[in-house]
Amino acid sequence: MTGTTDFARLVGIAVPIIQAPMVGPMAPLAAAVSSAGGLGSLACAALTPDQIRAEVAAIRAATDAPFNLNFFCHEPPSPDAEREAAWREQLAPYYREFGLDPAAPVTMANRAPFDGAMAEVVSDLRPRVVSFHFGLPAEPLLRRVREAGCLILSSATTVREARWLAERGVDAVIAQGAEAGGHRGMFLTDAAASQVGTIALVPQIADAVDVPVIAAGGIADPRGVAAAFALGADAVQVGTAYLRCPEAGISAPYRAALSTARDEDTALTNVLTGRPARGLLTRAVRELGPLSAAAPAFPGAAVALQPLRTAAEAAASGDFSPLWSGQAVGLSRERPAAELTRLLASGVPRA
Ligand SMILES: Cc1cc2nc3c(=O)[nH]c(=O)nc-3n(C[C@H](O)[C@H](O)[C@H](O)COP(=O)(O)O)c2cc1C
């Protein structure tokens, strides 16, 4: 018997282990984690409302257990033609290398912020949990999520962000340390160099807010889970380690790169999307960044990279793909999601 916590009781899950929302076909992963007693999550930022409905139907066909729908709530940037043109100019040598036309228009499913259409999907589907990244949506939209009966979570990367979220009534704060894979959830600061590590962040947030704290970033095995609880966490959110599960819908080059990656192989980069995110040091990250003042504002930087990504992936290369990964990638192993959930849960202290 493993431990349970206030957060787990609130959500109605057996173990306080959250599989982090991660872009890609992840419904089988989310269903497997929820079936195993944790909280599976579905990243919705790059999905249309119809795609969200289809993914949720797949989860519900597999399990009755609670799950989490995750949305971004960034301010969409105003168009900046000059900056876009300069970015394309910087990428032009790569276009030539792949025999692509740098002037050709690009259409892609980029990341969209939570809006009225997504609020309607949430009202219809009524997931047990909705989590946000990059702050919270405007109050009228947030109210619709509350009225749908969903618990609301959001990521904080500083104590100031945690307090801001708690003041707006979130049910729990995700303390996202700098080790974490994927985008920094930062929204009251853009100082990537000042981002705080998990071991420093979790206890300072736990001291600052009255709601449960969920530790995220660099947790990949029971030792990390036990450490997070010792620091005052009430649950953990784990991303990178779940990417290695067979249920995770990631490409073969991504899977291969994760299997050999070590502690030194990630960096915070803004060149892939325009916002700081931690990922593997691919060719694009090394040669264009890791951090670059030229990258267009989020999510614009991804647009001009998309044809390069597609061309490289067709040649089984992840050189231009966002291979998000946290610093604990070297601790992760290929294992089924239910097994990983049980393993992580063994680090939760018994009440
Ligand atoms: C591939 C990948 C994609 C991610 N996408 C999202 C996302 O869409 N929404 C979100 O809130 N967090 C996202 N994250 C961040 C996670 O929520 C979490 O903070 C992080 O995975 C924890 O660190 P770890 O990767 O070391 O376990 C992503 C992380 C990864 C690795």
Secondary structure: elements and pairs:
Blueprint: H1 6-11, E1 17-19, H2 27-35, E2 40-43, H3 49-62, E3 67-72, H4 81-97, H5 116-125, E4 129-133, H6 139-147, E5 151-156, H7 159-167, E6 172-176, E7 182-183, H8 198-208, E8 213-216, H9 222-230, E9 235-238, H10 240-243, H11 252-260, E10 266-269, E11 277-280, H12 283-288, H13 301-314, H14 337-345
Parallel strand pairs: 1-9, 2-3, 3-4, 4-5, 5-6, 6-8, 8-9
Antiparallel strand pairs: 7-11, 10-11
Helix pairs in contact: 2-3, 3-5, 4-13, 5-6
Structure notes:
This protein is of the alpha/beta class. It folds into 2 domains: 6-76 and 112-250 and 328-345, TIM Barrel (Alpha-Beta Barrel); 78-108 and 266-324, no CATH class. It has helices spanning 6-11, 27-35, 49-62, 81-97, 116-125, 139-147, 159-167, 198-208, 222-230, 240-243, 252-260, 283-288, 301-314, 337-345, and strands at residues 17-19, 40-43, 67-72, 129-133, 151-156, 172-176, 182-183, 213-216, 235-238, 266-269, 277-280. The chain has an 8-stranded parallel sheet. The chain has a 3-stranded antiparallel sheet with strand order 7-11-10, with no helix packed on it. The site of flavin mononucleotide has 28 residues, from strand 4, strand 9 and helix 10.
